[in-house]
Amino acid sequence: MKTCMKCKELKPLGEFQRHTHTKDRLRHECRGCTSKYQKVKRVRYRGMTLRRYTLKKNYGITPEQYDEMLASQKGGCAICKTKNVSTFLCVDHDHRTNVVRGLLCHPCNTGIGMLQDDPALFRRAIKYLLKRRD
Question: pTM above 0.85?
Answer without folding.
Answer: no
